[in-house]
Design a protein that fits this description.
Elements: H1 6-26, E1 28-32, E2 47-51, H2 54-57, E3 65-68, E4 77-83, E5 88-91, E6 98-101, E7 109-110, E8 129-131, E9 136-140, H3 150-153, E10 156-157, E11 161-170, E12 175-178
Antiparallel strand pairs: 1-2, 2-11, 3-4, 3-11, 4-9, 5-6, 5-8, 6-7, 9-10, 11-12
Amino acid sequence: MKAVNFKQLIKIIFAAVIMAFLLRTFVVDGFIVSGDSMSPSILEDDYIFIDRISYLFSEPKRGDIVVVQPRSSSAKIIKRVIGLPGERISVSDIDGNLHLKSDRRDAGIVLVEDYLNFPYMTPNVGISEIKLDPKEYFVLGDNRFISIDSRELGPVDRWDIKGKVFFLVRIKSLSVKFLNNLY
C-alpha cells in the first residue's frame, strides 16, 4: 500500500471541506427549535434537519412538516402543511374543526388529523376562512393554542418554504426520530 503524501492529504481535506459546505448550503440544513408550537411532534430544544432539495422535484403535501420564512418575518418557523394551493380552508367557530370546502356555501369536509393523536380543537383567531391562490399553502402548528401560523401570518408562498423536516434529534432524552410518512 502506497503512503499518502502531504499534498494529497491537503487535496483530500480541501475536497471534504468543499463537499461539506455544498451539502450544508444546498441539500441539508439544521436548526435548534425554539418554542412549543409544534409539540408534541417537535419540542423546544430539539435539533431538526431539513431536506432542501425534495421540493425541487415534488410539491409539499398535506401533513408535511416544513421550515418556512413567512413574507412578514425574517425568522424561520416550523409548521405543518394543512391547506394546498387552490383549496378553501375554514376554521369552524362551533367545533374548532378545519373544513376543506369547494366554495363559500359548501359545508365542506372535516380534515382528519391523525398525526395529532388526540381530539384537537383549532382556535378561531385571525383568518377563519381563506381561498388559497396557486402556489400558496396554509400552515399550522400542532399546538394550535400557542402557535403563530397562517391564521395570523397569512398563507405562505411556495418559495417561502425552505425545506421539509426529515430528521429530529431530541437532545433532552438523547433519542433520534426520522420524520417521514407522518400523514
